Please model this.
Amino acid sequence: MLAWYRQAAEAGDTELMNNIHQWFEKGLGVTEEHIAWYGKISQKAGNAEAMYNIGRLYERGVGVPQNYSKALEWYNRSAKAGHIIAMRYIGDMYYNGSGINQDYAEAIKWYSKAVAAGDAEAMKQIGDMYSHGYAVAKNSAKAIAWYRQAIQKGDTAAILNVHRLFSEGRGVTEDHIKWSIEIAMKGDAIAMYNIGSLYEHGWSV
Model:
């Protein structure tokens, strides 16, 4: 069956090209040669999603030995083709020092690129950088502003970050708390879970 998928992908079936990595993730007789072939046709087609998928395979060590350097290479190719999550993942690799030297300046550069494309999780990450003072001056007000943007864009997990600052007495007012809950309570199940966690841990909301 994989042989038929290869023929279709080589014929330019973009949807199949994006989905074929699912076979690789399941380890269904996949070799490094298959990954190399997948990379070749993905680059030739300029397929950002497929190149991102290859980065994920290398980062996680699925179908190939784990290789952070190659993961970063493929994320870069994908990001250059406009893949927003790939931009954020590059930021994450620099932020965490995943197989590469930790570099907060590079992390915020890539998060900023993802933010420019509308990525809510990257907004939260920049908020974290201002909260901790990584590559930027520590600034609770700017951290809160970034968390609010992330919440507005749909990353309701940022509610926990706002409440963490609140519990530390770092410039968060009760109005900030109420606002974040109002945004989150518009039917978001994850947000409701996060708010429940706040009550469970005795935080004032």
About this structure: DSSP finds 13 helices and no strands in the chain. The longest helix spans residues 32-45. Residues 90 and 110 are 7 Å apart (CA to CA).
